[in-house]
Amino acid sequence: MTESMLRGAEPTTIRDALEHDDPLPGTFGFGGELDDHLVRDVLGRVPLFVDERVDTNAPHPTWAFEPTALEKPRLFPPGAVAPVDEPSTGQQLRWTIPDPEPESDQDVALEALEDAILTAVEAIRRDDRSVAVAFSGGVDSALIAELLDAPLYVVGFPDSHDVAAARTAANAMDRDLTVVDLEPADLERAVPEVARAIGRTNAMDLQIALPLYLVGERVAGDGFDALAVGQGADELFGGYEKVVRLDHRVDAETVRGAVREQIRSLPDQLPRDVLAVEATGLEPVAPLLHDAVVETALCLPDSLLADDDERKRGLRRIAARHLPDDVARRDKKAAQYGSLVARELDRLARQAGYKRRIDDHVTKYVESLLEDSTRRSP
User: Fold this and answer.
1) Could you read off the pLDDT of 157-201 as tens digits, one per residue?
2) Which of 31, 99, 290, 312 could form a disulfide with 46 if both were Cys (CB 3.0 to 4.6 A apart)?
3) Do 136 and 245 share a domain, yes or no?
4) What is the C-alpha separation between 241 and 336, in angstroms, rounded?
5) Given this model, what pLDDT does residue 376 score?
6) What's the domain of life for this entry (predicted)?
7) Mean pLDDT over residues 6-23, rounded?
8) What is the pLDDT, as a whole number, of residue 336?
């Protein structure tokens, strides 16, 4: 067993999880090869790809952590195990996301959640890495920044919501803030690099991944080893408007069901975010996706999830113990909108002749930049 073959956990931890059918064995996620089998954690926090090629006897790898290493990469299912020599046909689901009864006592649930978050933070501290925080001024990144006591970096165009919100939050927290100001040329340069790294060209995925990549570039350039992010908070704690509205974007008929639906979407989203950060040379760190936090979030009572008045209520109650009230209460925009990356990428596409009347015009623009970059490569 070499370090490059397994990421995120010690072999003994995963063997115990297999033996005891434990989907949340106290890790930040794991994936890779163990005992001649591929394994991937139940939330897919470590990207793991298998090759869809029919000829598995060809002299090429059958699996990889990055999609660029394979001819026809496909995500290995979360919670699955498969023989290394049968990565596609031999898959067996070994872990599923737990569905526990909610805790009836709000105070007990909140204490458990705070303990879990502190456990995750302490695990990051023990690794002795130099960590910076991708900071938007919202409650998720603010709580992480406060508990880690790590430097704050925000990325966005000069007139963006995220830059303004991060400045006011950092001031309220009495913290210094590094602002990574973007120009349209930054997007043109980064789009092919990010599309190649994440193995995706669709507009939404690029709009989400670009801010992570661009802030990561600056953090890596400043000499840090890891980037702490707030990924998972909206899914785990009921941060999306659609989980309250129960509109066409969700299938569930209750807020609790809609929250669980969002949690199940994480395995498809997280590889994009992880790969975008890793492409800068940094290790992504997501404290709110530690198994202990996930386990307690699944047990939160409905009253600590979301309603018309407040979303992520349980997380905000914990944040209020550590942050100024206005920071703990504030909402935020999704990164692609708060940073204005989505707006500027749309503008660049239209300037390049990809008008909005063209179906999926931004994706076509992204694909054109990737093709141009590939032709120019030696």
Assistant:
1) 999 999 999 999 999 999 999 999 999 999 999 999 999 999 999
2) 31
3) yes
4) 16
5) 77
6) Archaea
7) 96
8) 87
Query: Residue 155: what are its φ and ψ, rounded to 5°?
Result: -120, 145
Q: Is the pLDDT of residue 3 over 50?
A: no
Rounded-to-integer distance, Cα 269 and Cα 286, Å: 13
Rounded to an integer, what distance in angstroms lies between the CA atom of residue 176 and that of residue 137? 12
- DSSP per residue, 198-222: HT---HHHHHHHHHHHHHHHHHHHT
User: In the chain, how many domains are there?
Assistant: 2
pTM, two decimal places: 0.93
Residues 230 and 141 in one domain: yes
Residue numbers of the domain that contains 210 = 106-338
For residue 288, pLDDT beyond 90: yes
* Among candidate residues 322, 300, 138, 140, the one with its CA nearest the CA of residue 231: 140
Give one word for 199, left, alpha or beta, with left for phi > 0 and alpha for psi -120 to 50. left
From 66, 93, 120, give the residue that closes a domain. 93
The whole-number pLDDT of residue 59 equals 60
Q: Are residues 247 and 324 in the same domain?
A: yes
Residue pair 156/339 in contact (Cβ under 8 Å)? The answer is yes
Judgement on whether residues 309 and 169 belong to the same structural domain of the protein:
yes
